[in-house]
Every structure is written in structure tokens, then in C-alpha cells.
Design goal:
By secondary structure, the protein is mainly α. It contains 6 helices and no strands. It has one domain.
């Protein structure tokens, strides 16, 4: 039984994104708005981002399925997106309009989701109350 659906959804999205950057960083990068090969240095950074996202997403999924407190992993997820936004702002003027919207907009949404998940009440499994089951 899934204990924390929000963490499961957010974790699966982040895990899938991370895996896509590990399996085919150029195709994943095109999805985020870059039509050209960014070169070997950027491919290295894309793979690093893939490892980061796969790790955070996997730990969110794990926590969601085991009923553990996922607020810290939501905060890590939002922090990763904040770092991406900070780096993206420094090259904002050099990005194409689509890259600005998808890349920087996605980071803003990710920060919001991370902050929401980190500040919500802890999700716990419902204890079995025998008085409500057996009259």
C-alpha cells in the first residue's frame, strides 16, 4: 500500500528524468530545449545531473513506499532545482526563448514542489483501530 502518493509521483518524475539523462543525455537535453550537441563538457554535466535526479527521485520513491518521512528529500529536490535556476539565471540572456521557458520555468515549478513537500505535515500510515473495524 502506498503511504505517500505525492512523494511517489514527484519521485517517479524526478527518477525518470534522471534516468533519461543517464541513458541518452543528448535526447534528454533536446527535450529541455537544446537542439544541438552541447559538447563533451556539457554532456558530462548532463550525466551528473542525471545521477543527482535519479538518486533524489529514487529516495523519494523509496520513502513513499515505505511510509518514511519524505520531507527532507522534497527539500533536496527543491534545492537541486534552485541550484539549476541559479545557474540558469547567469546565462538567461544567451538562452533561446523555449529554453528559458522550459528550463528555467521547470526549475521554478520544481522549487515550488520541493518547498511544498518539505513544509507539509508528515504523512504517516493510518493505524489500525480495532474499535472502528469490530463493533
Amino acid at each position: 500500500m502506498i503511504k505517500d502518493r505525492a512523494a511517489l509521483v514527484a519521485g517517479c518524475i524526478r527518477l525518470a528524468s534522471g534516468i533519461s539523462f543517464l541513458v541518452d543525455p543528448l535526447r534528454a537535453n533536446r527535450l529541455w530545449g537544446e537542439p544541438d550537441d552541447p559538447g563533451p563538457s556539457a554532456r558530462l554535466l548532463l550525466r551528473s545531473m542525471g545521477y543527482r535526479d535519479a538518486l533524489i527521485g529514487g529516495l523519494l520513491v523509496n520513502g513513499a513506499l515505505r511510509g518514511r518521512d519524505t520531507r527532507g528529500w522534497f527539500l533536496a529536490s527543491g534545492g537541486a532545482d534552485a541550484a539549476d535556476l541559479l545557474g540558469g539565471i547567469s546565462v538567461h540572456a544567451e538562452l533561446k526563448r523555449g529554453q528559458q521557458i522550459v528550463g528555467l520555468g521547470g526549475a521554478v515549478v520544481g522549487i515550488g514542489v520541493g518547498l511544498w513537500g518539505a513544509t507539509r505535515r508528515r504523512v504517516t500510515s493510518m493505524p489500525l483501530d480495532l474499535e472502528t473495524v469490530v463493533p
